[in-house]
Amino acid sequence: MTNFISIHDVTDLQALIKSGLEAKENPFADQHLGKNKTIGLIFFNSSLRTRLSTQKAAQNLGMNVMVLNVGQDSWGLELEDSELGNPVIMNGDKAEHVKEAAAVMGRYCDIIAVRAFAGLQDRDKDYREQVMTQFVKYAGVPIVNLESATRHPLQSLADCITIEEFKTKARPKVVLTWLPHFKPLPQAVANSFAEWMNHNDVELVITHPEGYDLAPEFVGNAQVTHNQNEAFEGADFIYGKNWSSYTHYGQVLVQDPSWAVTMDKMRLTDNGKFMHCLPVRRNVKVTDEVLDSPQSIVIDQAANREWSAQAVLKEILQNG
Ligand code: CP
């Protein structure tokens, strides 16, 4: 593994899950790998879990960590490249071009990890993954995706580790359900979860209201239904997430509160576990009763972010 942008950078998913579980058992076994190495964590957007878990994972591996909030701690970054006959003229509010910024960060860091969400204004632009692409192009060191416009692979790996720990059947039924929300949110977590589950040994069902289909390349072989109750029947894992429309890009088409996860819906499952990447708005997307029940494993899931990050950083350091 050189970069970790998506599942396509993973050669053996089961081995990576196992590596995460081994890190959890013995967090400091590989401290020598990161000695005198530095990781830069670059945030264009807010974070709690991703920031702290990646920092902790890097420290477990003996690395030094630097964190930068773009636009707050640093200059605003211009991301567009000049084209022949069409130069980018930087006379606006962006004082530095990513071409210099990423290259300079690459001189200070052995690995750079970047978070940059979708703008939700221009689908083609978001799905081109401009920020990740520019960092890969200009940094000259391995790049790790801390959630990009279309994917959140460290979250998805933590989700795989969590399902591995909690599953009671060889091939569990996993349901990705859309949840109601009043603000437009990116598709990244849902896309990524569907993509990784398509590579995992699970029965994947995706349920959402009409108009909320994910891009076909992420849906893969999943069964898709607009009947949430039917989807929940016999499920082993319920993975809740809101996303805005992909078809009517970035729009909130429905806020129907009946799509929230309640205890009545959880009773349709086979004693299923409730998962969510967090942060979650209580009693908007899921009730207190579900989140506070033994069926909720959201804290274990968030804790596994440390081990997913450690497995990925370890593999990059070993290949460096
Ligand atoms: N799940 C997740 O990525 O959390 P943060 O946005 O807090 O990092």
TrEMBL record:
Keyword Chloroplast: no
UniProtKB keywords: Amino-acid biosynthesis, Arginine biosynthesis, Transferase
Aspartate/ornithine carbamoyltransferase carbamoyl-P binding domain ranges (all copies): 3-165
Record domain Aspartate/ornithine carbamoyltransferase Asp/Orn-binding: where: 189-314
Origin superkingdom: Bacteria
Species name: Arsenicibacter rosenii
Catalysed reactions, as listed in the record: N(2)-succinyl-L-ornithine + carbamoyl phosphate = N(2)-succinyl-L-citrulline + phosphate + H(+)
Oligomer and partners: Homotrimer.
Pfam families associated with the record: OTCace, OTCace_N
Family affiliation: Belongs to the aspartate/ornithine carbamoyltransferase superfamily. SOTCase family.
Listed PANTHER family: ORNITHINE CARBAMOYLTRANSFERASE, MITOCHONDRIAL, ORNITHINE TRANSCARBAMYLASE, MITOCHONDRIAL
Binding site for N(2)-succinyl-L-ornithine: 147, 181, 241, 281
Record protein name field: N-succinylornithine carbamoyltransferase
GO MF entries: amino acid binding; ornithine carbamoyltransferase activity
Biological-process GO terms, alphabetical: citrulline biosynthetic process; L-arginine biosynthetic process via ornithine
